Amino acid sequence: MAPYNRTSYYGNSEDHGIQRRPTNSDRRTTHRSTRSSEGTVSTTMSASTGRESSGTTTTEAPSYSKKIVVVGDGGCGKTCLLISYSQGYFPEKYVPTVFENYITYPTHMPTGKTVELALWDTAGQEEYDRLRPLSYPETDLIFVCFAIDCPNSLENVLDKWYPEVLHFCPYTPLILVGLKSDLRFKKSCIEMLKTQGLTPVTDVQGQAVAKKMGAQYMECSSKEMTGVDEIFERAINTVVANDRRNIEAAMAAAPTSSGGPPKEIAHLPGVRAFKKKSRCTIL
Fold this sequence. Notes:
alpha/beta, Rossmann fold, disordered N terminus, prenylation, membrane, Small_GTPase
């Protein structure tokens, strides 16, 4: 596996501070949740500060409960992506992640229904390779991430991350996510990479890798808060479209003479998984 260069081009934290998204608190609330027989008992966490409140509330069950796992090289920006989305700010300091979960309750815009979205952050370091597979069961979608300022991290997508998720989650939809897009044209980043005979990853290069994976491709800058919401909106639309209930309803509404799924939904990864898993024998 190619070595990952962890050099940060963001500079000192004093130069950037914590950047907050002003409307984030109006759109979603972040929770750390525990299950109970009477519903979801949640400790509410402020979307603007990330601090937990002292009280708890019981929320109504969401229409969908989905799980997204995020993988990629250590230091490529996975945790910043999740924090900027779920808590509305860009973290000042890099703290290596072992395993961390975030629960959010966004709205699926086409239907107006609430989705309980569990975001599973994973460690990219090799010493956690044996533990990381514990995160994969029951995953609805995977973000395979790399840093645009580190070409090696894109190489590792094909060398390590794609083979790994293909092994553990062969039917799970993938989105290849290019992180730190704001660094693509940053002079200090370009000059640093030039000393190594490298250049920032281009959109074309990212698209080419995504095509090999059969994945969607998107980019964002967690620091500038650009493209983050669009990535999660795409993810939410994908997992809801792939929900077993929606697939069954679509198949019932538009059956084909061959008995397969309608052509309108046949391309969805969830349909392929549904077909595969439906081949069972009851003894």
